[in-house]
Specification:
The chain is an alpha+beta fold. The protein has one domain. Helix content is 16%, strand content 27%. It is built from 2 helices and 6 strands; from the N terminus they run ββββββαα. The protein has a 6-stranded mixed beta sheet with strand order 1-5-4-3-2-6, sandwiched between helices. β2 and β3 form a beta hairpin. The longest helix is centred in the last third of the chain and has 15 residues. The radius of gyration is 14 Å and the shape is globular. The N terminus is likely disordered.
Length: 145
Amino acid sequence: MATKHILAGVAVLTFSAVNAAAAQVFEKGDLLLCQSTEGMPDVMAWVGETDIAETLGFEGLAAVYSLQVYGAEGSGYPTVGHSPFGATVFADCTRVQANVGTPPSADFLEGYTIWKDAARKGDAGFWELPVADAYWTILGVLPRS
């Protein structure tokens, strides 16, 4: 079965002014298991890049993590090539492996470049939903709030 890839457009992202006090710290290359708060299946996320939020104009936030998100292995759910998340939405994620040596996909690199350029201009934000819930929202399973 061929894997489908989805590039999450910057138009679906929302800006967030959130408290960074509760933020977890992840490193580029970490593999995360993220649970849905809406009763949907868990998802996996690979940390492809981390950016200091202030350098992109996002105040009150330590970092923005750019993730490649996909359904659990063998689930058949598609991969979302790139989605940025504010550092405070990871309460439902657990690092399952550190520093995975997987190179980023072309979808991730393209999405990250487009998003970062737009964010520097003030034209893009990041998800403030939990990672799994954002994934299911991108796929259209959960409604956009």
